[in-house]
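Training component of the fellowship. As part of building independent skills, the fellow (R.M.) carried out the full modelling exercise for a liganded target. The chosen ligand was adenosine-5'-diphosphate. The inputs are recorded below so that the supervisory panel can assess the work.
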Amino acid sequence: MKNKIVVALGGNALGKNPKEQLELVKNTAKPIVDLIEAGNEVIIAHGNGPQVGMINLAMETASKSEANTPEMPFPECGAMSQGYIGYHLQNAIREELLSRNMNTPVATVVTQVMVDKNDSAFETPTKPIGAFYTEEEAKKLETEKGYKMKEDAGRGYRRVVPSPIPVDVVEKETVKTLVDNGHVVITVGGGGIPVIKEGNSLVGVPAVIDKDFASEKIAEILDADYLIILTAVEKVAINFGKENEKWLSKLTIEEIEKYVEEGHFAPGSMLPKVQAAMKFAKSKAGRKALITSLEKAAQGIEGKTGTLIVK
Ligand code: ADP
Ligand code: MG
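Fellow's submitted model of the complex:
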């Protein structure tokens, strides 16, 4: 059966540097093309933590150095990361398609995601980004640039930015049109470039939208049947890493909700995935969310592994 599937790729699908990424995406393309070959419509979303961190750090370092390059705002760093990750992904998917005699067009859409300027996340920034600074430098940045600086695990001070929830996807009509016309689309990279609306303008804000939530949002907008979150583990566990660890296969929203309340899922890693999966499964009858590993994606779709969350 033909399904519309949003695939969200995690850090392990892309690696930590351009060289590693170029190699890893060849593998990442395989399960994606398996899905396309089986006749599904596939939309791809991905994280950008290490990549945007690297770009931001390089830009900050160069602007502080003798090179004295212009300062690069954080939303622009996010846009750069979408472009460079998309470039690697679209080429790898194209190549894998061609090797199977398919010439489905593949493209990346630089995607902005609307956030609410009154989101309470803006009051308590949580995501550390960029370079490490001394306490003195950190204080200077706070007064001069209005950055929020926080001590990061004994390693020095870093800028922290908020993680607001996605409200809407600005380029949704473009993504829809491409998908409806048989294109494979890479979108909401890194959770999307966070923007707020000011009159007719969209203004980029220094923030990080969780890619799991942004993937869920675009899946709802596109009326997808499946949200598949591919990460480093084959299944979601309760008592994760403990002696009584138990891997979960198929659950209802009520069942997993109970485990969320009991605190089984780590905030910042598994919790946002579980929350995104629950939100998607809840949003409309028939929608399913699957959390599994990149390697097991195909088997997961066949219902043989992974953690499936249904209404
Ligand atoms: P991604 O880059 O795919 O978003 P994350 O590192 O953010 O990956 O999240 C996936 C990780 O979450 C897993 O590799 C695992 O170490 C961790 N994790 C935390 N709690 C759980 C849990 N209850 N079950 C499975 N994995 C968990
Ligand atoms: Mg993550």
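The panel noted the following from the submitted structure. The mean pLDDT is 95. Residues 231-310 form one domain.
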